[in-house]
Amino acid sequence: MDNLLDYTFEELNDIVLSFNQPKYRTNQLYSALQNYKNANEITNLPKTFVANLSEKYIFCPLTIIKKQTGKDGTIKFLYKLYDGNIIEGVLMSYKYGNTLCVSTQVGCRMGCKFCASTLNGLVRNLTSGEILAQVLCVNKELKGTYQDRKITNIVLMGSGEPLDNYDNVVKFIKMVSCDKGINISQRNISLSTCGLVEKIDMLKDENLQITLTISLHASNDEIRKQTMPIANKYKIKELIEATKRYFNKTKRRIVFEYALIENVNDCFDCADELGKLLRGLSCHVNLIPLNDVKERSLKGTTKKRAYAFMDRLLSNNISATVRRTMGEDIDGACGQLRAKYINNNI
Ligand code: SAH
């Protein structure tokens, strides 16, 4: 069955008209959906119309089945999709607002060695409405409405590779920033990718104001190939060239994620090499000590070493910060909670 949240306002309008309903019903239905109301919670539409709709369409494609709050206030959500698949999300509270991390696929096929999302490969893509549902469902859980939203920022950094699910992800970004709905500013949305070069080139022409984040995690191809299979497909140089084209077109500063892995990519030579690679590009480097993943034998760098690495980058004139690791005590890293759930450890 199709999911009503997969449709834009205009597309929803066509559906409403096809049920012989007046046009103003579209506003009512759209508002209800943006508040993540299920069919039985909608009171301002004719009962028969709602009943006919629910025979053909799903209203709420996912539900929260588990909520874990960490010491730092980070909340991890486990959602169940209507087909039984499990995905996860993380809510982080900052001074300026709440950021929700959303998943774009069930599983992932990129195979990064440090990432728990990829342990069982890709199960399926999420539709645009299923990605949107994560935002609307958590907003409702926080007692927000679409006009008085409790989520201000979104990062596409949950499980999945967003650019491997390109059309659904781009449609999601347009829908979640639509001024008729929850209207989260594109400037408050970050899309993180392991670096699919052709897709970055497509994305630059979509006229979006989002921040492109590249999971780089290495300063040269040899090191990158040790942990990221995608490095066999695209050379780092090609990837950096694509980010330059992205910046030139969008004027949006590029963010690079660099997970520091003990004795793999955390030496000063790597920092200098990274400095050289990024010289002249308008960018920022987010350093994050790797969250240890038990299934793999890769360990995070110490805090001290992370700050020394940052200083080395700064001395190369590269803007860099060490990111707070949030939600470590609640399996905050990508796919960790889902992996545990699937293995019946919780
Ligand atoms: N597929 C996308 C988005 C999902 S991952 C991407 O590759 O960017 C979100 C971020 O978390 C990525 O930068 C990813 O490399 C990082 N990540 C995955 N596992 C991690 C771990 N164990 N510790 C720290 N960062 C991790």
How is the secondary structure organized here?
Elements: E1 2-3, H1 9-18, H2 24-34, H3 47-56, E2 57-58, E3 62-69, E4 75-81, E5 86-94, E6 97-101, E7 105-107, E8 122-125, H4 128-141, E9 153-156, H5 166-176, E10 189-193, H6 197-204, E11 211-215, H7 221-227, H8 236-250, E12 254-260, H9 268-278, E13 283-289, H10 303-315, E14 320-322, H11 336-342
Helix pairs in contact: 1-2, 4-5, 6-8, 9-10
The structure holds S-adenosyl-L-homocysteine (SAH).
S-adenosyl-L-homocysteine (SAH) binds at residues 110, 112, 114-115, 157, 161, 192-194, 215, 257, 259, 288, 290-291, 293, 333-334.
Q: Order of strands side by side in the largest beta sheet?
A: 3-4-5-6-9-10-11-12-13-14
Alpha carbon gap, first and last residue? 30 Å
> Quick one: how many beta strands?
14
Helix proportion of residues, in percent?
A: 25-40%
Poorly predicted parts: none
